[in-house]
Amino acid sequence: MVKPKYKRVILKLSGEAxxxxxxxxxxxxxxxxxCEEIEKVRELGVEVAIVVGGGNFFxxxxxxxxxxxxxxxxGMLATVINSLALQSILEKRGIPTRVQSAIEMRQIAEPYIxxxxxxxLEKGRVVIFACGTGNPFFSTDTAAALRAAEIDAEAxxxxxxxxxxxxxxxxKNPNAKKYDFITYLDVINQRLEVMDSTATSMCMDNEIPIVxxxxxxxxxxxxxxxxxxxxxxxxxxxx
Length: 239
Ligand code: UDP
Known about the structure:
By secondary structure, this protein is α/β, with parallel strands linked by helices. It is built from eight helices and eleven strands. It has a single domain (8-234), classed as Acetylglutamate kinase-like (Carbamate kinase, 3-Layer(aba) Sandwich). The chain has helices at residues 15-18, 28-43, 68-92, 114-122, 140-151, 184-189, 197-206, 219-225; strands spanning 8-13, 47-52, 97-101, 110-111, 126-130, 155-160, 165-166, 178-179, 181-183, 210-214, 231-234. The radius of gyration is 17 Å and the shape is globular. The model has no long low-confidence stretch (mean pLDDT 96). ATP binds at residues 12-15, 55, 59, 166, 169.
């Protein structure tokens, strides 16, 4: 049997991805497809933790009428809606799942407890981390980097709407070049839109590889198997 490349991963799903074509609200078909793939990944014995964004409902930095910190808390609450949606569909497929929230809301989710999260993963449960880092002025990308470091994940699978990292925006520049591999420093120095710089530096400092790929059918599985489907961000290219 072919072995997966990673034993424990963080899957970062943006809220926008869950919104499907519209990018807003929840496209249940998209959620079903994602969960179907998570099931396959789990069957390979890979431990999966998910960090989900909230941009399909609310993004702190785009709010105009209220202060940034409050807007960010609203954004974090949006991630809870997405987490519960994912949990429900995963459990409908018979996959045991726990939502852990960085902001306590005991009636809805467990509080984030690192050791407990690791235990859930070891028992084969999918753990969904809600509310990002729990702090305003951060992003769910940073939450993915932080949780990956905390739980010793071997990689962050960054599912996006584009199929990798380009030297310029492929939607605007038809000659944009896609990288198979790029270093964290190049991402930061060239201000490439992979993750925000806080999240990228955190991955760099902890040497957590980021696998950037398009959230299309079959790709989460391919990413876990180490297939060359998008761009790998790391310190140096693995031989
Ligand atoms: N957010 C925050 N702190 C965190 C994570 C998220 O304040 O640690 C807020 C922030 O307002 C952000 C929103 O939650 O805009 C939704 O998260 P994000 O924009 O990262 O979601 P995505 O773009 O991945 O859907």
